[in-house]
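Per your request, structure below.
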């Protein structure tokens, strides 16, 4: 007796999740040979057709009635030597494969100096070299939920509360649907600093002599220095690349109050002004004694020559008087 097998086939609806988007896809299950009657002992191939992506992107699950009996990486399943008790309704279910993430994200920070100060602007950038159409998720501290979403995260440091650890990750609507978490960057935040203004000269500065001012700021790097005279006037500031300002030859007009501050970045972030520093000028006082002292220090040999010359002159005067006296006596 030859028995035939009934094989109703259905495509089981599959939920596929990619990134934040969810979509329902209806796979199609077909049977070969496509005969109305299949007899016991024949071979049957079930094929699960799926309209999205490559076959290698998916895993196929095979059901008889409501019971899974097999899963494969191929979209077909062969029943060899089918029997009457295998007559049933068959379904296929499609699921996206679980893969190990190989897409890396790199977090960079500009400017790169540390610490940063309240009021400074900081730009964090999340970079992913492979694939495209990424959405960038930003994480802060111990939070596991994103605090914002964009490729660059530029913000102004407002308080010490912004001191924290930051990292990022990319997500998108296609496979691969997400990247690995990036490296973590620690931002150290301090209050706006105030430099100290000092001078190379103690007391009044002699007119004509040099004086060097120093703007001391022991806080990270990247600073340029700005110098004000008489008033704190940004319009009339003198800028230097180093923390020193030299007056090569002091004049009376160089006397007065001086301030300094430092700045860095674009737009420029400025520190507080230093306390005022006074420069008093004075002229050198001269006297005959000090002039002779200076003269002696410069040319002692000339002084000896003058003394010897005076002695020779006196000696010649005495000889001349003796000759005259002798002539009178005769």
């Amino acid at each position: 007796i030859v028995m035939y097998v009934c094989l109703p086939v259905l495509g089981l609806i599959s939920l596929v999740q990619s990134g934040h988007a969810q979509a329902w896809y209806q796979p199609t299950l077909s049977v070969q040979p496509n005969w109305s009657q299949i007899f016991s002992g024949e071979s049957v191939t079930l094929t699960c057709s799926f309209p999205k992506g490559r076959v290698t992107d998916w895993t196929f699950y095979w059901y008889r009635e409501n019971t899974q009996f097999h899963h494969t990486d191929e979209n077909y399943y062969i029943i060899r030597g089918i029997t009457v008790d295998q007559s049933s309704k068959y379904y296929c279910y499609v699921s996206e494969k679980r893969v190990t993430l190989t897409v890396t994200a790199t977090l960079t920070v500009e400017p790169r100096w540390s610490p940063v100060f309240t009021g400074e602007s900081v730009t964090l950038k999340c970079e992913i070299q492979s694939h495209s159409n990424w959405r960038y998720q930003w994480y802060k501290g111990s939070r596991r939920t994103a605090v914002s979403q964009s490729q660059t995260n530029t913000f102004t440091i407002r308080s010490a509360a912004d001191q924290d650890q930051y990292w990022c990750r990319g997500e998108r609507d296609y496979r691969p649907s997400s990247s690995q978490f990036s490296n973590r960057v620690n931002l150290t935040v301090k209050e706006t600093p105030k430099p100290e203004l000092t001078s190379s000269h103690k007391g009044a500065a002699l007119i004509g002599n040099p004086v060097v001012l120093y703007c001391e700021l022991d806080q990270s790097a990247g600073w340029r220095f700005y110098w004000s005279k008489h008033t704190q006037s940004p319009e009339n500031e003198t800028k230097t690349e180093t923390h020193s300002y030299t007056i090569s030859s002091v004049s009376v007009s160089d006397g007065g109050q001086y301030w300094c501050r430092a700045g860095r970045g674009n737009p420029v972030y400025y520190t507080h002004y230093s306390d005022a520093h006074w420069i008093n000028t004075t002229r050198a006082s001269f006297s005959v004694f000090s002039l002779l002292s200076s003269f002696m220090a410069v040319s002692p040999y000339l002084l000896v020559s003058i003394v010897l010359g005076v002695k020779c002159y006196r000696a010649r005067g005495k000889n001349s008087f003796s000759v005259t006296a002798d002539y009178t006596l005769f």
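The helical segments are 288-298, 300-329.

Regards,
D.
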